[in-house]
Here is the input.
Amino acid sequence: MSLTGGAPASINTTQKIGVLVGMAGLFILLLATFNVNLGNQAVWLAIALSAITAGIIVFAKGAYANKLPGIKNDGVWFKSMSSRGVLGWMAGIALTGFYIILYFYAGVLGLGQGVDGANTGLVGLFDPLSRFLSGNPASQWFVYGTLYTIAILAFGIKFMWKYRHNRYEQLRTVSVMFFQTAFAFVIPELMARLNTDNFSLPYNDLKLMWPLNYYAFDQWRVDQFINAQTVGLAFLIFGILTIFVISPILTYKYGKRWYCSWVCGCGGLAETAGDPYRHLSDKGMKAWKLERWMINTVLVFSVVMTTAVISTYLGYDSTKYWFTKNTFLISVGAFLTLVFAIVLYYKKDQLNTSAFKGAIGAFVITIGFLVAMSFMDFSQIKINASYFSFGLNTNEYALDGAMRTFYGFGIGSIFSGVIGTGFYPILGNRVWCRMGCPMAGILGIQQRLFSKFRITTNGGQCISCGNCSTYCEQGIDVRAYAQKGENIVRSSCVGCGVCSAVCPRGVLKLENDSLKGRINPKDVLLGNDVDLMNYVNNK
Amino acid sequence: MYNVFQKTGISCLCENLKQQPSMEEHIVIIGNGISGVTTARHIRKLSNKRITIISAETDHFFSRTALMYIYMGHMKFEHTKPYEDYFWKKNRIDLKNAFVENVDHANKNLQFADGSTMAYDKLVLAVGSKPNKFGWPGQDLKGVRGMYSKQDLDALEEYAPNNEVCKRAVIVGGGLIGIELAEMLNSRNIPVTFLVREESFWNGVLPAGESAMINRHILNHHIDLRLSTNLKEIIADENGRARAVVIPETGEELACDFVGLTAGVSPNIDFLKDSGIELGRGIKVNRYLETNIPDIYAVGDCAEQHEGIGMRRPIEAVWYTGRMMGETVAQTLCGNRIEYKPGHWFNSAKFLDIEYQTYGWVFSERSNMEHQQLFHWKHEDDTKCITVATEVGTGKFLGINTFGIRMRHEVFDRWLTEERSSDYVMENLATANFDPEFYKHFEKEILSAYKSENTFAKA
Here is the structure.
């Protein structure tokens, strides 16, 4: 039996050319990393980036151009790259390695390794582009940002080709391509040009909200915004408005997809470069149980950590800010209590026992920390960072800084980067979004309880085939709902729309509709005896 | 009414034994497809009875309709299982992998192929179908298979793993399974010749415009579609394996390594021949899904109504009718004896890249239904069309077929119940649209075509 010998596992000539061209581009970057003198950096950088982009697009052409529009999942589970085969593992290890170097050993990439701290190697290769945009030399983050943007653009084109019959998928992809290129890359780089000796703004990706952006309210950032007067304050206020006003409104109207699969950069990469791995997410009950605990724990942690960081600098620097430490802590506590009370009052019936217990636990822990903060000065409690960074960081930190550092290391670097993206070919493309993102956690709670969004199930048409569940990147067992005729209302759904696309019977539709009848489990589906349906379903 | 009071009878015998599962009635279900499994699930929801499901096909329930996606590499077998393996034990549904050879209803006993036996109190036959064979010479050769069971899939993987082992495959029979098998083989770049007896694909069911559109779509996928073409015989090589088919119309001998027989299915009831259970083409059941033998029921593909319900056929080998029979018979088995009363007809399928849905009744021209009049609209891209059937004289909406446009089941079900006119349906078609957001809508175009055609004057 030669399962892998089937034709779908092989790639055609055009695709091979694409791989070759793309690899040539990566090879140039590798040569630069090893400080091979290539001559004109700007030219070689342009060649390398063009080759990577062209390679991906040529590969997509080979894959889809000669096929009729439709679902293109033939051979997904036969291909080594997309079924945790040798190629998949190699890609996973390479990506993981790249992230570890990027986060912890930027010197290897040539950051500040030259004369007078000038860049060499890979970072040096990106200097011309960085100077062109912001006027400054490149950093490892500029290298990463550029490659990230190129990945979203080129794999975005591939994804749009793959789904050329599906306008929802196409528009969504254009949207993430735009937000990544403009908001996360070009605009912040150009704005860095405005910085002078007495005016400077932090690198500000307008769409990168707290708590996904865990350093959004770090003192240095807030100080920079405040010092930048009107413009800075406007950005700061806009940032706060997105969290407390804009996001809740959009999530109420459209579900969390407005962010997770239309705007977010992490989501953008997952939906484009990560698309070939979406089926690798674990759909089992155990994974779901792990998910609920993990994502909500990270959310609590991020709230506590951010509050600790802010309250600390409000504490020792109270003259600089409008708030004092205790006013701040009391307002946070009051706000959380209010939100919690509203949820319990209106939605208690929608929380099952374990969700209810979890919510109570999370609330008590958070409030407990707030109380502790008001009575203790976290900045006076010292902790050595080597305990929680596997020795990668040996500095001593105050407790607030330690929480911030642990969060930045454990959640920001390891979880969202190394595991979240490096493990695409092993765990699927949304493991960070599903298990770790605190932003997804908040939006998810709102989506589950206060949103018009749902995936509607089409009466009795489901044949339980399992395409929807298999291709759900968030590991939702979509079929379990569809075969019960029940709408899918899940906090983790990012609204990518692929379940609906791959359904062979037209059973699923993402839509925003009234709150009434949004959750509608049935024992007997539409199509059977009306009396039986009434008898069983209304019992 | 013989089974209604049994449960209460047992309960009254000895109150404290009620808790003992062993004293609960033993319901045995033969077949772990959608109808058998739905029966078991609903019995469990309603009662504490002892339930055993027997199958010789697989250990666990899987979605038969998804077998094609395993071969195409969209899914693995485990993905086709709608319930995780722990589900059965948790819900106290016993699974037994065995082949039933004989049903001894006098002693309420089953005899298995390995010689062992099992007693039952009530028996549900949910044994499904088998592919039709019409006595073609060579139909039982190696490399000749239907596409119905897990074993069929395994055989396909053996005889047609790729286009080196299988240089050409021939499919005989132009129905839903035939076109799925063509899509499967096509996904592995195996050249496919598709023999269809009719002059246009599935035109016993589909109106001409739709059938013709699907013909063109099949050809666009580089499948060698041969209409009005039959199979004369399948020729063996020296190892008893199919090596060619002979086409009677042309006398052509077409070399191939795999032959798929997809000329429909019929109930899988050979093992019941001498059981005393009344058989026709299937297992004869009344509207309560009861056979002629007390305490034996039949559901799903294998059940044959004495008379078709409404315009439905006596045997319906459709996924959801199997499910609905399971939902119904479980009520009866748990003391709430009710008739099987399916609602309005609906169905769906996918022809390569084109999805198909139907609600209500639309008959093909070949069915010679003089009471219906058809309105047909087709998009210029040749992948979308709809056909609406209207009752002649009254203007009543009878049904709709849609290709490449998704519709809402709930809305059409309601309109059929309300007996709306086709004029009303066409005016309100947008309400029923179920396509993904941002898709182009065609309701205006369809409505203006409908109005300009003005095929039926309002009575």
User: Anything to note?
Assistant: The radius of gyration of chain A is 25 Å.
